[in-house]
Design brief:
7-stranded mixed beta sheet, 12 strands
Length: 277
């Protein structure tokens, strides 16, 4: 049995503030220890439940945040950027029985600690077939096309609630309770580690590949906080500006959909200026 862990940082234990997950800050150095603790707890739980392989894919920002020297030796770490499927790299190889979304968060336009979708700001909403989509929903749709179920989700309480819509059978652990975008009631890592480990052990029973979801066209729309960003996004082939601050495109499946969305966010990032973004 092989389990893939997609490890994001905004939803990790103790993280509530942008600097907590911004590489290079003193707060990030402190919080990456708790981030690694969350991941180690999941590794231990999956191994307790019988997983034979655990691959951890870094999914946050530079994708170089976890402390390899402190990682549970039973796992392997995929670290660094520019990967074919970014946050869920590895699921496309067809040998992953279950995937965990660790440290996830709610999407742009929703309530939640550090809520966003791919870009910290600029994007105010992402919609797939008319449904507002978090990173969890986007990634789960791709995983379904490879027959890999989402078996565990951790983050704040709003993230766990969001997960009911796209991974209704998954185990969930709320490591903190939402107060505002930059505040939460946090549990200490000594407590969350045990909760994550127990949930991961239970989640192993869900880690069974199923028939891949039949690929079907997906309509993706992205809304921005400034009109010029829609123009920047429309440079991507197939992407059309549909409103003053909105673009849309239709992809033949979600694999192509997530790749086009990545291209859109890359173009938009390059169009944000320091003072008048």
């Amino acid at each position: 049995m092989k389990v893939l862990i997609s490890a994001d940082m905004e939803g990790a234990t103790g993280v509530t503030w942008p600097a907590d997950c911004l590489p290079g800050t003193p707060q990030w150095e402190r919080c990456r220890v708790m981030f690694t603790s969350d991941v180690n707890a999941a590794i231990a739980g999956f191994c307790d439940g019988g997983a034979e392989q655990v691959l951890v894919n870094e999914a946050h920002m530079t994708m170089r945040n976890l402390l390899l020297e402190q990682l549970d030796e039973r796992a392997e770490l995929l670290t660094g950027r520019h990967k074919d499927l970014s946050m869920i790299e590895g699921v496309q190889h067809g040998d992953v029985d279950g995937i965990a979304f660790l440290g996830y968060h709610t999407g742009a336009g929703d309530e939640g600690v550090l809520a966003h979708t791919y870009l910290g700001n600029s994007v105010t909403g992402v919609f797939v077939d008319g449904v507002r989509a978090s990173e969890g929903l986007l990634n789960s749709l791709v995983c379904a096309e490879y027959g890999t179920p989402v078996v565990l989700v951790t983050g704040d309480d709003r993230t766990c609630l969001d997960a009911r819509g796209w991974a209704p059978g998954a185990e969930t652990v709320a490591v903190k309770d939402y107060v505002s975008r930059y505040a939460a009631v946090c549990r200490p890592p000594a407590r969350t580690a045990g909760q994550i480990r127990n949930a991961a052990r239970r989640a192993v029973r869900l880690a069974h590949r199923h028939d891949p979801a039949p690929p079907r066209p997906r309509r993706v729309e992205v809304e921005f906080d400034a009109e010029h960003l829609a123009g920047a996004a429309a440079v991507v082939p197939g992407v059309v500006q549909t409103g003053e601050r909105r673009v849309g495109f239709t992809a033949p499946d979600m694999y192509q959909g997530i790749r086009c969305f990545k291209a859109v966010t890359t173009m938009v990032s390059a169009a944000v200026e320091e003072w008048y973004g």
